[in-house]
Amino acid sequence: MAITKMRLMNIITDKQHLEEMLLRFSTLDNFHPELANKIVDRVSGLAVLNDANPYADLLSKVSELCAEMDLTLVKKPIDSYFINLDETNKMINEIKAKFDQIHEIKKELQTVIEENKMAVIQVKNVSAMNINFDDLFSCRYLKIRVGRMPKQSVDKLQYYNNRPYIFKEFNKDEHFCWCMYITTMRYEGEVDNIFSSLHFERVRIPDFVHGTPEGAIKELEEDMKQDQEHLDHVIETEKKFVEESAERLSELYTKLQCLNQTYEVQKYVVLLGERASISGFVPEEDVERVKQQFADIANVEVEVRPAHSDSRLTPPTKLKNNWFVRPFEMFVEMYGMPCYEDFDPTPFVALTYCLLFGIMFADVGQGLVLSLVGYIAYKKMNMRLGEVGMRIGLFSAFFGLIFGSVFGNEELLNPMFHALGFAEKPFEVMAPSFVMPLLISAIAIGAVLILVSMLINVTQSLKNKQLGKALFSQNGIAGFILYGSLLVGIALQMGAGIQVLTLPYILILIGIPAVLIFMQEPLERLLEHEKLFPNGFGGFFMEAFFEMFEICLTFLANTMSYLRVGGFVLSHAGMMLVVSTLMSMVGNASPLVFVLGNIFVMVLEGMIVGIQVLRLEFYEMFSRYFDGNGIAFKALNNN
């Protein structure tokens, strides 16, 4: 459970082998590359590779063509990545032209068939009029339109009753009214405009339709049958053509994607005259595997150095934790990534988060349900928060077992306690006598966590050679002694009646640490052999005075903040008491109230407790020892 050790790797080659090297480089999934500008900007004579990408347009054309063909491409193993750009472009255009031709014929046939289907419907409608189609459509002075319009548009025709047209309604379906209107040649345009405004859709009767409606229907159905056979043949031809093209397009797409990627990674390439170099960080355990990727390429050198060998580059941080701790990395990442040399707080976060959540949400039944829901969310929806839910649910069940609560029932586990030799439950949450010990215990838990956070800060400061911060800061040794002495003195005097806060105790264990914290900045300058008060003592005194006042308030506020731990224990018991009371009031509906009440409490309180524990982690603990200024390790293929 630590931060993964890194190595700085430089991959160097000549320009003749650069493309082959980049092809291999672009497939790496364990290499954190550094932008070439970080190096080029500080060294004269170096440059960033910035060649024009000839493959991007071809790759885009292939992707668009495959989308049109509804073709899912599969990456193919490739022996050679050589591509003739002109021939490739010609091949893509030929495939597209052939597909567009087939697809256009298919669309035309589908349109004709659909129009004929509508024509059949309309012919059947007109058949009730017992009119010969040759007579109907050969009128010289009348214009006849058959079709359909939305049902709600029919009522609007009343606004145009003064216009010269005859309207004939045939029948209606769920959305449309099938109809016909007749007007004269003189008013053709005006009447057509009226019906167009009412969303009239004209159904054209094909020219080959003649004679009686029965004969017309037969002609239309025969024509549709022939068109459908033709359409089936075209669909089969299109399917076969897509299948034949899939292999070539998949191979081409794989080549283009790889070649295009070599240009995407140009921003990492530093040109060293006739040579080129890429720098980045690799986990120590993956170094040999990365070196093997380039072992068979001529004139490629791979240099491996310590992570801090290049002062221009900052090693990235990759967290490495066991199965239990790993899900809590998401909380650390929300706050910020630790620096490469720093302490990985994830194990501490995992332990404290589980403990605090378990105490605040203590219930055997609800804890197990939360764990089950978390498991389902993780397995079915791949939610990282689901993994956290699995763990905190088990801790909730454990503390629920200690408090004797099962879905809010405070008596169900009494036989177990009796069997263990207890006369009654060890912790009776709802008893008035339990409230004060619970709140004091919550403050004690908070005080211990604050002291542990200070110790972590001291350890890290000493590791990073920040002696002044380790000794004199509010979260250093001085702050630890000051805060710890106050807590011990108050606890012994109020709890055990032991007079501890004597003058020597106050002067040595409280006064001296307070002065050291007050004088932190000048003392740090003293260690660095600098001037104690560069801006004068007066300005320093005023600033330090108010900072010291803020520090005292922060100690008090941070300690009192942990009262919420005890408060939520009481809140949980109180909410479940409300559920129990409602169950006793509703009679036969009590099972329903039990289920809904528990769901409501789990969702509402679970969410609130989760947020409050995260707040304690961030503001009461992280702020003491964790800066979060590190750079996250990002493998090339995850950028």
TrEMBL record:
Subcellular location per the Swiss-Prot or TrEMBL entry: Membrane
Chain segments annotated as transmembrane: 348-376, 388-407, 434-456, 477-496, 502-519, 565-586, 592-614
Lipoprotein listed as a keyword: no
Pfam families on file: V_ATPase_I
Membrane topology: Multi-pass membrane protein
Assigned keywords, A-Z: Coiled coil, Ion transport, Membrane, Transmembrane, Transmembrane helix, Transport
Ranges in coiled-coil conformation: 217-262
InterPro entries: V-ATPase_116kDa_su (IPR002490)
Gene Ontology terms: biological process: vacuolar acidification
GO MF term set: ATPase binding; proton-transporting ATPase activity, rotational mechanism
Name of this protein: V/A-type H+-transporting ATPase subunit I
Organism: Dielma fastidiosa
